[in-house]
Amino acid sequence: xxxxxxxxxxxxxxxxxxxxxxxxxxxxxxxxxxxxxxxxxxxxxxxxxxxxxxxxxxxxxxxxxxxxxxxxxxxxxxxxxxxxxxxxxxxxxxxxxxxxxxxxxxxxxxxxxxxxxxxxxxxxxxxxxxxxxxxxxxxxxxxxxxxxxxxxxxxxxxxxxxxxxxxxxxxxxxxxxxxxxxxxxxxxxxxxxxxxxxxxxxxxxxxxxxxxxxxxxxxxxxxxxxxxxxxxxxxxxxxxxxxxxxxxxxxxxxxxxxxxxxxxxxxxxxxxxxxxxxxxxxxxxxxxxxxxxxxxxxxxxxxxxxxxxxxxxxxxxxxxxxxxxxxxxxxxxxxxxxxxxxxxxxxxxxxxxxxxxxxxxxxxxxxxxxxxxxxxxxxxxxxxxxxxxxxxxxxxxxxxxxxxxxxxxxxxxxxxxxxxxxxxxxxxxxxxxxxxxxxxxxxxxxxxxxxxxxxxxxxxxxxxxxxxxxxxxxxxxxxxxxxxxxxxxxxxxxxxxxxxxxxxxxxxxxxxxxxxxxxxxxxxxxxxxxxxxxxxxxxxxxxxxxxxxxxxxxxxxxxxxxxxxxxxxxxxxxxxxxxxxxxxxxxxxxxxxxxxxxxxxxxxxxxxxxxxxxxxxxxxxxxxxxxxxxxxxxxxxxxxxxxxxxxxxxxxxxxxxxxxxxxxxxxxxxxxxxxxxxxxxxxxxxxxxxxxxxxxxxxxxxxxxxxxxxxxxxxxxxxxxxxxxxxxxxxxxxxxxxxxxxxxxxxxxxxx
Amino acid sequence: xxxxxxxxxxxxxxxxxxxxxxxxxxxxxxxxxxxxxxxxxxxxxxxxxxxxxxxxxxxxxxxxxxxxxxxxxxxxxxxxxxxxxxxxxxxxxxxxxxxxxxxxxxxxxxxxxxxxxxxxxxxxxxxxxxxxxxxxxxxxxxxxxxxxxxxxxxxxxxxxxxxxxxxxxxxxxxxxxxxxxxxxxxxxxxxxxxxxxxxxxxxxxxxxxxxxxxxxxxxxxxxxxx
Lengths: 752, 226
Fold this sequence. Notes:
Strand order of the largest sheet of chain B: 2-1-3-4-11-10-9-6-7
CATH architecture of chain B: 3-Layer(aba) Sandwich
Strand order of the largest sheet of chain A: 8-10-7-11-9-12-13
Distance between the termini of chain A: 55 Å
Oligomer: heterodimer
Largest interface: A-B, 32 and 29 residues
Order of helices and strands of chain B: EHEEHEHEEEEHEEEH
Largest sheet of chain B: 9 strands, mixed
Radius of gyration of chain A: 26 Å
Structural class of chain A: alpha+beta
Shape of chain B: globular
Helix content of chain A: 25-40%
Distance between the termini of chain B: 13 Å
Number of helices of chain A: 26
Strand content of chain B: 25-35%
CATH superfamily of chain B: Class I glutamine amidotransferase (GATase) domain
Number of strands of chain A: 28
Largest sheet of chain A: 7 strands, mixed
Number of strands of chain B: 11
CATH topology of chain B: Rossmann fold
């Protein structure tokens, strides 16, 4: 046992060379560790600092920008727990609180798609569980390389099966998300995972370890050698050619274990058995021990030899760094320990007292009586390095913006428009995603009111009152590439619009910011602009950011992905029975287009599909308009004036019409405005627009409300349940069967 | 008196609360049963819900069949005609327990599949299907990764000739089940296994229809009349 590097050894051998550079620490960071400790770190301490000070854990490059989310946060009395805990918590009334968060698992999912995606779901679910909530739904915003690229055939089926395999086995309905293809994600797919949970507002759990003498209990799976270095090796560096050789850094998930952990924890919360709790995710036990003790401003003592291991030969630094999944750390009063252990046994969960809360402010970790760690926990958890990275607007930025898609050759004849429509609805980004989503369980728990392909997922929280929530995620990397400030705002605007389209009032935001290397000043500029844009827009819309995640180093060699801020918006419905679905249903109802259409084709799906073009400036953002539109949609839903509503986004009006018609197999006759170019009317991607179907009896009331509130509206057609076709009058007609074949055939053909 | 219908929770059961909700909507009292306790608490019928009991380790349902509660259920179903409905994972457990013949294997296309599925009721003579008409078509969700029903030809012929196939997939077979079989019953008609999920089609708001309710009202009717 003498081979272990102890604190005593570290003191007596100050000059031993240490491999800090290999662990990803810079010279000055290593010097600071020595300064904090007043000696060289032990091998175990060095490993802990390298993990906790990694980009992934410390947010060292993003911190200075992210603080805007707090500074610009709109005032709200709904926020029960803000940023900083594992996930934000908002008050939704009736004594209920909802917590939700989106996170990335990008790098592991490229290396090992199934397990990478599966453990991404597992990780975010534990974040939600940690807050005291029962997880009630998940959604997965996904980005892949070109749909027809051979490696996409490796990555996509694995990711989808992993998301489904884990979430289905946990019994969590998957209610939405995105599947987007773009060559920029070829070597860097984005696998973001969102989870939402609900709890009685008085059951909120926090991570702080308080109360000297309280017991530190490790719950869940045994600790193994999997996932060591996940956050530092995988998530905090750019991939080079040895990407696949990093497979051992990917964790392996066991959803059954997690399901037991969920039930066990919820029963512990209900019986008020824990005083603090933290999940083990990235950085494993290191992170959980340091964050709980730092948050509680307490000392802590942990005995590593008590940790149940899969491999007996594991060394202290491996035990502390392991990212083995399905583990939680609970702080328990000594008098409640027996009950905790019994409860864990009932659920078949391993529970082990591995330490205790102590006086003072040191985290001391021993291994068979040898002290291997003796550090101030705050130095790991809170006082990591902070960088003000250089930022630089890309040199070609103006050139790209000048290369506008509005000047590209466009279809003009009726026949050309018809062909364009069919080609667009079959394109990988606009086609039906059913091949993906039917691998996810959307029914389990029996509270799913709306799920994909609807604008937002809607979940009932209370069977008596009908109170419920809506959730949508959106993000458009092409818009953000053309203008990261506007792109981030457009992502928020779309998610906000999607939520209000179902009739829910948007109340809070989570974000997953996917970018290239922060060491590249142009990437850092994109990041700074996107954060500024998102923070400004959250302020304008009155929806605070409650939490989220930053994923840097999404690049292959020197080529970064498009900046991809993915934004999730949570909305509230007083009665889910009032929700507005997207599909046409009743014959003869009036179709009304809300908002204004401009000639905005840059960054559009049309420009990409027909010209492989990306240039110009993205559609204009008008947040006041988005807010007004949202209010009208919520009022329309509440007062029963709308029978269908569908947001216009990628693919414009044409895509919205097709999707609403195919949803229930009910067609429409559409009259495009006479004073506008039909192509622009159909394919422009102007923001702030929603297509609604209004019963004849409500038409006058609804349009009058729009007029009074100064929301532009235009009658553009009627629902036609007889024709079985979508007719654009004066232009063309396409039978729904033909549309369906085009729309639904693409993914099965590619991934069969 | 209200009928009391037990819903078993195994480690990894997922649709247990959904099944209990369906029981309640049908008008009966749901009673939660724990896998580790042999006591059935005097329930009049039992639902084995969907999910991934024991993580589907070894084989779907292969471990759950050894749970203490299953010993009591198998005996009561065999000796006393206790009505038992196994949904999805519950169907797999019934096959592993030999209350029903055949087995459920990996979907032929190898993917988990969740869709709204049309079924044709082939037998309305069981404890769980009497509320339907023979040949009635219903729409309820199917969601499974291992729902492909298989058995040898003789068994299949026997099931068909004795009217023990209770429901078949129509408008597309979602998992490759032989002879489009979605559900079967035992010779006595008290034990039914069904791959699709009737408990997810009991409310307009959350299901594709309310066609699933009939499974629960059937057993209620039977309990009231006997």
